[in-house]
Amino acid sequence: MYCTYDQYISLGGSMTDAEYAVWGPRASRMIDRLTFGRVKHHKLPDEVMDAIADACAQIADLMQAQDRGRRKSCAGALASVNTDGYSESYVSASDAAQSVKTAAGAILADALGDDSCNLLYQGVGGCC
Fold it and tell me: CA 58 to CA 95: how far, in whole Å?
């Protein structure tokens, strides 16, 4: 896991230890998917690992929030509501998952800044 619970709390996280035990590893796996395993397989500078920990904490919060929204709605994630004629529309599970992946990618890109180690590079090649 790229961010311990103590790091998560120091970064402003609000989950309990038990909740983070679920969402922290999932966020770490999302980072592995987004970086094609480069974080896991390379020795990275401490400042990059600190940025990864920050992204992991934010992604864990994002994933938990998305899950809470899905659980509140029987039909899926609520996309919009119109109260005058009362109508609701929902996002499909696959669209919601893609939305989380996109948002997680944006969080990771923001945390990495200039991405000097090319962790988000989608081609073949190096890492620091």
Answer: 20
Cα 49 to Cα 2, 43, 77, 111, distances in angstroms: 8, 9, 33, 10
Q: Name 33's Cβ contacts closer than 8 Å, sequence gap at least 6.
A: 101
Threshold 0.85, pTM exceeds: no
Q: Are 1 and 24 in contact (CB under 8 A)?
A: yes
Burial letters 102-111, b for 16+ CB under 10 A, else e:
ebbbebbeeb
CB of 105 within 8 A of CB of 34?
Answer: yes
Q: Are 54 and 111 in contact (CB under 8 A)?
A: yes
Nearest-5° Cα angle at 53, 67 to 105: 55
pLDDT digits (tens, 9 = 90+) for 43-71: 999 999 999 999 999 999 999 998 887 77
